[in-house]
Known about the structure:
Number of domains: 2
Bound molecules: S-adenosyl-L-homocysteine
Radius of gyration: 21 Å
CATH superfamily of the largest domain: Tetrapyrrole methylase, C-terminal domain
Number of helices: 8
Distance between the termini: 65 Å
Mean pLDDT: 95
Amino acid sequence: MTKGKLSIVGAGPGAPDLITVRGKELVEEADIIVYAGSLVNPKVLSWGRSDAEVFNSAEMNLEEIIKVLSEGYQKGKKVVRLHTGDASIYGAIGEQMYYLDRLEIEYDIIPGVSSFLGAASSLKKELTVPEITQTVILSRCEGRTPVPERENLKSLAQHHSSMVLFLSATLAKKVEEDLLTSYPFDTPIAVVYKATWEEEKIYKGELSGLAKLMEDNNIKKTALIFIGEFLKPQETFSKLYDKGFTHMFRKGK
Ligand code: SAH
């Protein structure tokens, strides 16, 4: 058996040129591409060879995806599994790797720019603001997909850290209610719709107006909700570039 090559590639948040150089090269040379249809920019697929076989995983179940990946690999083909953002964040790669490992199929994972990082760039904000918060919570609101009880939004809210919620656009009312049990009502929020795509939109407000903001602007998908003091104008500075601070590479004056 000639072994093929299987690469699980993060396509980035939306703008096609935010894929990594390595990811782009793999797309260009692939015989088979299986892409996450709802969120991967079609421009990324246009870099593929004209004779590449292309599958939209949004229309496939896990078994069908594994079949295409494994059969391609076993026939000696170059196979790319293209995920949105970075595959390790809500990418459901764990279950794909579970079956690939059982089938003794080797693969590489190529990181991608997650949508929360694309959106933070669009917001032009630092998520870890000196003295205000040094922690970022990435999570989601419980809907049809369960979230472990100890991670419910009410308990995560107690930290008052920077928070980014994925997959929660249709659950804004519950997000607002749960977070208001700890965050002050006027905590700044931002909703980024289709971050880094041409259609990107940014909405800003206060936590107590989150559900209304989502409803008024009819945002139901492809959005991230940012919550936290980090969205305010920054007044605290880090020690890193403080002229009086000595560290490994620079002596303070
Ligand atoms: N692996 C992806 C996340 C997949 S889960 C990543 O690293 O970004 C899908 C969720 O991601 C969507 O419901 C939405 O909350 C978020 N998302 C993905 N792309 C987005 C984008 N360009 N702008 C805003 N949110 C996005």
